Fold:
Amino acid sequence: MGFWDTTQQILVILAHPDDPEFFCGATIAKWTAEGHQVSYCLLTKGDKGVNDHFSQTENIKELRIEEQKNAAKVIGVTDIIFLDNEDGYLTPNLELRKEVAGVIRKVKPDIVVTCDPTNYYLRDSYINHSDHRAAGQVVIDAVFPAAQNILFFPELEKELHLEPHHVKEVWISLPKEKNIAIDVTETWSRKLEALTKHASQIGDIDQFYNRMRSRHTEDSSDETPRYEEVYRRIVFS
Ligand SMILES: [Zn+2]
Structure:
């Protein structure tokens, strides 16, 4: 059972290649299967995405773009805008807000998906990356009011002919306080398959699968797992 009766244009705006699949990949797979049109806008090319498993930095942007395209294809997304802000240094400033507002006016999404700028800690075992918080902040500030108000960044309209656009809903992934949980059991394996395309980021594949399969809901088991992706859903009235 879907959320909408008609085809929706959904724009996922996040900081890094691999964020869409990690944060909401199973939901995206469900939406594309239901016939919705999903596109991505990534604010960086993930050029600091090196870890113990990957130390070659020379062509990391190209590699991460390629991985992202392959991952997105697995869950039904082919339209990806890669912005070129420096990985690790995202700040929710006016320049970035204008850039994102311009993308929203251009793509004209019904639904925008981003992540929670107020969430500093994840599962009591991770610090949420500062780029994720900055991306969430700048996206919600771009949705309202910058994208919809002609007096914000007037050059967008005057010079680039990007008319104001009203988004209908915002879905906040990695929410500090969720108000909706999507059962994504059916598309969880598709999410994992997509994530394996980000080979430079996931390390040992068996450990990765074990870790991700263990993230079932508390009311289910390893034998019959149920998976959810949760959001704070804002529906503008
Ligand atoms: Zn990230």
Q: What stands out?
A: The chain has one domain: 9-235. The pocket of zinc ion is lined by residues 15-16, 19, 129, 132 (CB under 6 Å).
